[in-house]
Design goal:
- The complex is a heterodimer of chains A (about 260) and B (about 325).
- Chain A has twelve helices and no strands.
- Chain A has about 260 residues and is mainly alpha-helical.
- Chain A has one domain.
- Chain A is globular.
- The model of chain A has no long low-confidence stretch (mean pLDDT about 85).
- Chain B has about 325 residues and is an alpha/beta fold.
- Chain B has two domains: about 220 residues, P-loop containing nucleotide triphosphate hydrolases (Rossmann fold, 3-Layer(aba) Sandwich), CATH 3.40.50; about 70 residues, Alpha-Beta Plaits.
- Chain B starts with a strand and ends with a helix.
- Classes of the chains: A mainly alpha (about 260), B alpha/beta (about 325).
- Chains A and B meet through helix 1 and helix 5 of A and helix 2 and helix 3 of B.
Chain lengths: ~260, ~325
């Protein structure tokens, strides 16, 4: 039980940080909202979807997924900061559960995601996003998004603990997440890509997540679904498998890295 | 406390600890004195369960560090070179959080936090974020965090490195208070003066080994106390060497580049006066004359035959290579 308690204390620390530096919360919501507005009004007019409600219906799931994918960078740079300041040493010399610090951090970052997704949802609604599915499915979609962010957060733990400098972490995370989110069906159909990239995009977890969310929000996923392939036919299952695999690999690796973080 | 510890980095190329053994008697203060890279921090990290040694054994308060690290963590307090507290949170927030992590319960953690803030004269700054604190205040808060549960053994890793003289004095005052309260303390430092002020015993370490151990008086005797230093023009060097040697009763050494002649003396200012007199009667005008108190460099020079600074540069080099 005390392990749960330790985790709760660490998570609370992070929420406390958000109230002390509200800029973090403001900027982590402004960026995705800006993306919503930019894509909606810059590309929205020129991409014809044949979908009732227009581009914004397809866009929102894409931006949601992109945003939670950046949890990776958030977790990584937060931990790298703690490492640099010697805070990790202090935590490790305390009589607490050794995984509390990282587990607490990943949970705290997920809580931040809830706020960010809520704000984006509202922004989307204002510019015309109207999911046609029932409330239950829409809620399930958001749960899916949070779960995806949580899984990636563990990748971030490993990145954050492995890097020597917080700025490097920022850069590495961006180099990983940007191509992943753009080489996907999130913002444009994959059918326009070179063939080899189409394959990549099709199996890209970001694409399967986007497709899964579109499905849950009541849309046909018209973008790039190479008809008949497994990920395009079963985006929900594929995404779930991806998340489980990511966690199965990165949770043990990250915890191991944390225990030996300075050896 | 520590037996034959060995720790290597970079696949054995850098031996941070090379069979180091140490022990601290309960209720006393041991200062581990050495230059950067001597292995001070590595020892502390092993004893505080942050690092595993490659070989050797260690125990803290009778508990094996390698076999039961979680038990060791319950009885130790650690305050490191960096102030390891959350910069964005306030002093009060930090102490309450760490109190809760020590499983004090929210109420008790709050009480303890206020006690410690009061004790370390931080009450006024309690509600300010740490990033607005001075270096000395940060260190005091960090120390407070390591005292939340009244540890049996306290580790202070270079508690005053990087502080200005005033901050250092304040920190010494705080540590002296603690020592009076009867804590078992292992303190690492680069400053002989600090070890002198705070410790019952001093262990001098270099390249991962203890090279001398004893009370500060005993060590100083070994170093030879104060040194007399004279700088003269080139033509007078030979004669001055004779005079300095005669006054000190020891062999005088010459730094040719600086034309600096020096020798250990035991009579302090009397020796200084005598040298000035002798130089004057020999018609030699000294460009610079002074008494120098023994520094870590002197300890090193006399104990190892090499200067602390060279060592430092060499180790830094290795460290860079490691990263």
């Amino acid at each position: 039980m005390s392990a749960v308690n330790d985790v709760a204390i660490i998570t609370r620390r992070q929420l406390l940080l958000l109230t002390r530096v509200p800029e973090v919360l403001i900027f982590s919501t402004i960026q995705p909202v800006m993306f919503v507005l930019l894509f909606r009004f810059v590309f929205g007019g020129s991409i014809s979807t044949g979908q009732p409600g227009g581009y914004v219906q397809l866009l929102m799931p894409g931006i949601f997924v992109q945003t939670v994918a950046f949890t990776l960078a958030g977790t990584a740079s937060g931990l790298a900061e703690d490492m640099k300041k010697g805070l990790i040493d202090r935590f490790r010399s305390l009589p607490i559960s050794q995984s509390a610090l990282v587990v607490g951090r990943t949970l705290g970052d997920s809580l931040l995601n809830i706020v960010v997704l809520a704000v984006m949802g509202i922004a989307g609604y204002i510019v015309g996003w109207r999911p046609s599915a029932g409330l239950g499915n829409v809620a399930l979609g958001f749960l899916f998004l949070l779960f995806f962010g949580y899984a990636l957060s563990w990748v971030g733990v490993l990145v954050g603990l492995s890097a020597s400098d917080a700025r490097v972490v920022q850069n590495v995370s961006f180099i990983v997440t940007f191509p992943l989110t753009f080489l996907s069906n999130a913002f444009a159909p994959t059918t326009g890509m070179p063939r080899i990239l189409q394959y990549f995009a099709e199996w890209n977890p970001v694409s399967t997540m986007v497709a899964a969310c579109r499905q849950l929000f009541g849309l046909k996923n018209q973008f790039g679904a190479t008809a008949g392939s497994f990920p395009s036919e079963h985006p929900l299952t594929t995404s779930l498998i991806y998340m489980v695999i990511i966690m199965l690999i990165f949770i043990p690796l990250s915890l191991r890295k944390y225990r030996h973080s300075v050896d | 406390m520590a037996e034959q510890l060995v720790k290597t980095y970079d696949k054995g190329r850098v031996r941070a600890l090379d069979g180091l053994s140490l022990d601290v008697e309960e209720g006393t203060v041991l200062s581990v004195l050495g230059p950067n890279g001597a292995g001070k921090t590595t020892v502390v990290r092993i004893l505080t369960t942050l690092l595993r040694p490659d070989s050797g054994s260690a125990s803290v308060a009778g508990i094996d560090v390698i076999k039961s690290p979680e038990k060791v963590r319950e009885v130790i307090g650690l305050s490191g070179q960096y102030a390891a507290v959350d910069e964005i949170l306030t002093g009060y927030d930090n102490l309450v959080m760490f109190g809760e992590l020590y499983h004090l319960g929210k109420k008790q953690a709050v009480v303890r936090a206020n006690e410690l803030l009061e004790r370390f004269s931080l009450t006024e700054a309690a509600k300010r974020p740490i990033k607005t604190y001075s270096g000395g205040m940060r260190r005091r808060l960090d120390l407070a965090a390591s005292l939340i549960v009244k540890p049996k053994v306290l580790f202070l890793d270079e508690p005053t490195t990087g502080l200005d003289p005033r901050g250092r004095q304040e920190m010494w005052g705080v540590i002296q208070e603690l020592v009076k309260g009867g804590v078992t303390l292992l303190l690492t430092t680069q400053y002989l003066e600090e070890a002198d002020q705070l410790a019952d015993e001093i262990a001098v370490i270099d390249t991962g080994k203890v090279i001398a151990r004893g009370t500060s008086d005993a060590l100083k005797k070994q170093v030879g106390g104060e040194r007399l230093e004279v700088v003269v023009e080139q033509v007078h060097v030979a004669k001055t060497l004779e005079i300095v040697a005669a006054v000190s009763g020891n062999k005088a050494t010459l730094d040719e580049g600086l034309r600096l002649i020096s020798a250990p003396v035991s009579t302090g200012s009397a020796a200084l006066f005598e040298v000035l007199k002798s130089l004057d009667s020999a018609g030699i005008h000294a460009l610079d004359v002074g008494l120098k108190r023994p520094s870590l460099d002197d300890v090193f020079l006399s104990l190892t035959g090499h200067a602390a600074e060279e060592k430092k540069a060499e180790i830094e080099e290795k460290k860079r290579g490691r990263k």
